[in-house]
Predict the structure.
Amino acid sequence: MFKLALRNILRNKRRSFLTGLSIAFAVMVVIFLWTFVSGIISGMFNNYVTASVGHIRVLNADYLKRETMLPLSATVPNYRQLIIDLEKDPNVKLATGRIKFGVLMDTKGKTKPVLGVGIDPQREEAVLGLSRKLDSGRVPAAGTSETVIGAGLARELGMKTGDTLTVVTQTAHGSLSGLNLKVVGVFNLGVASIDNRTFFLPLDQAQQLLDMDGRVTEIFLLIKDPDKAPQVAAGIGKTLPPGLTAVPWQDNGFLYYMMNIIKYLYAAIYAFILLLASFTILNTMFMAVMERTKEIGMMKALGMREGEIGRLITLESLILGTLASFAGAIGGTLLAYYVSTIGIDYTAAFKSIRDIEMPLAYIYRGEFSWLTILFGFMMGIIFSVLASVFPARRAAKMNAVEAMRE
Amino acid sequence: MKNKVILALLVIWCLGSGAYAITGEEIVNKVDANMTSKTSYSESRMVITVDNDVREKMMISYDKGTDTGYAEFLTPVRDKGVKYLKIKDNMWMYLPSVDKVIKISGAMLRQSMMGSDFSYEDALESAKLLEKYTATLISTEVLPVSFRTQDKIEIKARLCYVVDLTAKVKDVTYYRRVIYVDREYFVPVKEDLFALSGKKLKEMTMGEIKRIGSRHYPMYMTMRNLLRANSNTELFVTKTEFDIPVDPKVFTQGNLTK
């Protein structure tokens, strides 16, 4: 029967090719869009998480109340020991100290609030991964007065690698303090709100500048399962010295709210893509089998039983669907690979709205996943077979003469 | 005892008559005359205490008249070489770490100076009070005041004028100030600073009054910014000289970057 099915498919090459092509195309589109959309979601989440809220942050409770003011008076003391203790927790992947502070800078006569972030350059490689996100230069080394500044900020300040960035700000104790930093690199995280107003400097330099020896404004944690952050944070909270608190990313109202909306929005988009693709496959397959009513009538006249005809048509659909879905999956994989490595550049589109405070990227990259590809492939086969069952049975049930007359 | 009786009688007389022999304005002018000189030089130690954190800074300063001054910090290491210059209503700060002169203006004036309980504004507006405030002598009060003679510090009960200064305009940080002035030496011994709402913002006391030449001068000052929890700044004047020759170049911006 397999041989017969194969022969049937090959007999009308043009019809089989066209049917297969639309199935392949539908599969390819599903894989591509799915990859792209999940890439946008997880990219947004990752950018926001690694740059600002972490999975969990350990903060001074007073700091939390006035966080928008970046108060340096409410800090986390003795952070080195705390990091060692926090990393003993089996749920914690990584802990690192950060200091965030505000600086006013002159840009073409205008005063612009800029965010300075003191980081541990080595540990942050696993979080921010600045070395992979540089437009030019390198990452600052600990213990040196070096800085890496955002691409947007560099443009606004008219600065490039090798220039000196003068930072004047208030220390944790309220006096003014200054530091000359050598710009050793320009980074581009691809997030407008960060690239346009942030510079990173080694933590020790920030501590020196702000008179905050041994202190940080927050300890940034990445944990193994981000969805369990509230439970892990509650557990960590109990072990912290008095005055400190652990905040899971879900407590960041903006991000949580946004992620929820986005999840629903994209669930709707997924459903829509799936619906379109399945409709295409169903339609094509349905037409292909309907077209063969005459042929089916002939088979019946030649003595084939109903069940046999039904099975034959289903088998044909299975073979054609599998071959087409496979081709579609290959095409989809190539597209998914492209969109997840090179991405689609929206820089030009974002030029006019560069200052938006959203964790949006200039370049969208998909999230490559074999599961998505397998899903697309299976979907193609299942819908192909499903689409053939009804017309095949209908034709098989028909009187041979009637079917041939159609 | 006899003194106290006379004093009490004096107070009753003053209050009873409802009129003093001196006006609030005259008192403020006399304080200015006592506290400022053509030129002066001083060395002082600033002790800033916030909770259990104590920071000590040494500084020298030159003053000319009521509105020109220069200060330079000598210690600690992180503040060494930080210089301030004030001329009239302008103030500049020099930060040696970035070799930069910063003009202190706008909202910054109300911020803490060197992490102390003093704001830049507090340092600027010393004199000229009568331009912005109406002075009224409201009462007299006996306060404990410390005096310094040689190395001895003595606390005496002193009769003080209580002068109320209410702003003529509303755009001042301290809408009302109450100054307690030693009646004999015209040295301010205490000052309370209030916001427009009536909330007390700062509390300053002065003491260790020392006789220098013909004038009496407080060698110790403490300021508490009540908006900062458990915060207190003390200023110990270790050396001071009046009407000495000072190179006019000291009060120039060029001197800041030197």
